[in-house]
Write a structure and sequence with these properties.
The chain contains twelve helices and no strands. With 259 residues, it is mainly alpha-helical. It has a domain of 109 residues. The protein is globular.
Length: 259
């Protein structure tokens, strides 16, 4: 297989024994990005603008805080992110206050009912809708997640390229134990995006066959893991089922930090 600098991380991950080599890629990237945002990013203006606007999701806040390596840096990023959100909320506060004043009903019950109808027609609720949309968007925003998503898309491109051009990689791919369902979906999407239609159909056919075989393997190991809690199987060997539960969870949901 002809190695190029952008293919090395992919081939290294696929050469390891795992339930999902793409999970290994993502886990390594995530560690690199959390290192970056706890270190060099603190001194880069562009990165601070991005973290001020987006912040981090719950998972990545937890990861960076629990590492306890640079709480001062994380505090600075969190402080400026909070300031940015306070600024946005205060803008909504004024708009919603003005809308509430203008839509207050006066007079009789009939005029109050008419006022409510008019306020709906005028769109006075648009400020509230905008606030809800902003908060919903903020819940999903994360600087680390966005960077991960962008890099993982490039890795998907590399995987499709290697699979379509390199026979050695195709053999390596086929010898894997399948993938988590998250990365199976990402590769199926990438095949449509980066491969020719007939190549995409072939890839997904092989991927699905590989996935079904390995999900059946995991299911049998999980079934045996559960049976081992029955006294009738006390003397039976565990086989490969001792760690079947975390591997089964990974197959379903991708890599997890399970203790």
């Amino acid at each position: 297989m002809k190695e190029k600098i952008y293919t090395i991380p992919v081939t290294e991950a696929f050469e390891q024994d795992s339930e999902c080599p793409v999970c290994l890629l993502e886990k390594k990237l995530e560690a690199e990005y959390t290192d970056y945002y706890l270190g060099p990013a603190l001194m880069e203006a562009d990165c601070r603008i991005e973290t001020n606007q987006k912040g981090f999701c719950r998972r990545h806040f937890e990861m960076m805080y629990n590492r306890q390596e640079n709480r001062l840096g994380l505090a600075l990023e969190t402080d400026t992110h909070l300031k940015e959100q306070l600024k946005r909320l205060k803008e909504f506060e004024k708009g919603i206050s003005d809308a509430a004043k203008s839509s207050k009903p006066t007079g009789s019950i009939i005029s109050a009912f008419t006022g409510m109808r008019l306020s709906k027609n005028r769109g006075d609720g648009s400020a509230v809708t905008g606030l809800i949309d902003m908060l919903a968007e903020l819940e999903k925003s994360c600087t680390v997640c966005d960077r991960l998503s962008s890099t993982m898309d490039r890795y998907m491109d590399v995987i499709m390229y290697l699979w379509s051009k390199e026979d050695d990689f195709r053999k390596l791919f086929s010898a894997k134990k399948g993938f988590c369902l998250i990365h199976m979906r990402m590769m199926a999407e990438a095949s449509v995006k980066y491969l020719k239609p007939h190549e995409s159909a072939e890839f997904v056919e092989l991927l699905l066959k590989q996935q079904v075989e390995n999900l059946e393997r995991i299911e049998k190991e999980l079934d045996w893991f559960a049976k081992k809690f029955d006294y009738r199987y006390n003397d039976s060997p565990w086989g490969n089922s001792r760690d079947a539960l975390p591997r089964g969870i990974q197959k379903l949901k991708g890599f997890c930090d399970l203790k």
